[in-house]
Specification:
This protein has one domain: 3-Layer(aba) Sandwich (Rossmann fold), CATH 3.40.50.720. It is an alpha/beta fold. Strand 5, helix 6 and strand 6 form a beta-alpha-beta unit. The chain has eleven helices and seven strands. It has a seven-stranded parallel β-sheet with strand order 3-2-1-4-5-6-7, sandwiched between helices.
Length: about 300
């Protein structure tokens, strides 16, 4: 199936009136998704580990009309790595809103460090949020999506879900995992004939705080951040994270409404996808050369 193709046998599908769950809604792409869905008439269930960020998103969503009668905003603090909490959250959303149509597994964190220098605790942290958070959410909400008769699972991977980079082993592993899990889920619901669409999202460079937050976490964890790592993070923010999250959210929701199983966000993601497809055995060497050249600037 072409990357821009629709889900087999489906027509365009509006999000208007649908109950949409968005994790990691307190900032970045998650907040932008919540606001874009609110603009299009969705009912929202929003979660995040940041109470302050979540409250701001909910307030802005209500200002866009998501708090009008019949279109309330459900909010809850949620650590997606906590499996029991995620299942309890799913029940609370259904109890309050009655039904769930769409799940946006968006919550995630970034991480840097080589295989030799990264602590095991960092792998656990990144995988528990980025990958297991997606698995927890999908398992918790899938029965409700099936029951809705018109469900949609939207799992946010990354450009690093099909292209690995040195120094991002934990992050790349988690995002490759999201891609594989989502594609397996898609095969299962198609085979079972369940009324649920499944999409994987691969954003390229989106202007969020995910990279700087990763750097702050490293410092807070006692990691000695080198001047080179500081410079690399600055280059990453200035040169690669260019797309406004609002634009990314529009692309994602457009893809959902069009029923696309694979949503590439940004020309960088599209370009890298082509390169990896054409040079699957050679792209790591190309990435390494580009990384060395960038570090010298």
């Amino acid at each position: 199936m072409a990357k821009t193709g629709r889900w087999p046998g489906t027509a365009a599908n509006s999000v208007s009136g649908k109950v949409c769950v968005v994790t990691g809604a307190g900032s970045g792409i998650g907040r932008a998704l919540a606001l874009e869905l609110a603009k299009r008439g969705a009912r929202l269930a929003l979660s995040d580990v940041s109470d302050g960020g979540l409250a701001e998103t909910a307030e802005r969503a209500r200002a866009l009309g998501a708090g009008s009668p019949g279109r309330g905003v459900h909010t809850a603090r949620l650590d997606v790595s906590d499996r029991e909490a995620f299942f309890a959250y799913a029940e609370s959303v259904v109890d309050e809103l009655g039904v769930v149509h769409q799940l946006y597994n968006n919550a995630g964190v970034a991480s840097s460090g080589t295989v030799l220098t990264s602590d095991w605790s960092e792998y656990q942290r990144v995988l528990s949020i980025n990958l297991f958070g997606v698995i927890h959410g999908t398992q918790a909400f899938l029965p409700h999506l099936v029951a809705s008769g018109d469900g949609h699972v939207v799992n946010v991977s990354s450009l690093n879900g099909f292209m690995a980079q040195g120094g991002l082993s934990a992050y790349s592993a988690s995002k490759f995992g999201v891609r594989g899990f989502t594609e397996a889920l898609r095969a299962e619901v198609l085979a079972a004939g369940q009324p649920v669409r499944v999409s994987v999202v691969h954003p390229g460079g989106v202007r969020t705080s995910i990279a700087s937050s990763a750097m702050e976490h490293a410092k807070a964890s006692g990691h000695r951040v080198t001047a080179e790592e500081e410079a690399q993070q600055k280059r990453y923010d200035e040169k690669l994270l260019r797309m406004p999250p609002e634009q990314a959210a529009r692309i994602v929701v457009d893809g959902v409404e069009a029923g696309r199983p694979r949503i590439l966000v940004g020309r960088d993601a599209q370009l890298v996808d082509v390169v990896v497809r054409l040079l699957p055995a050679h792209y790591p060497a190309l990435v390494a050369r580009l990384g060395r050249a960038s570090s010298k600037r």
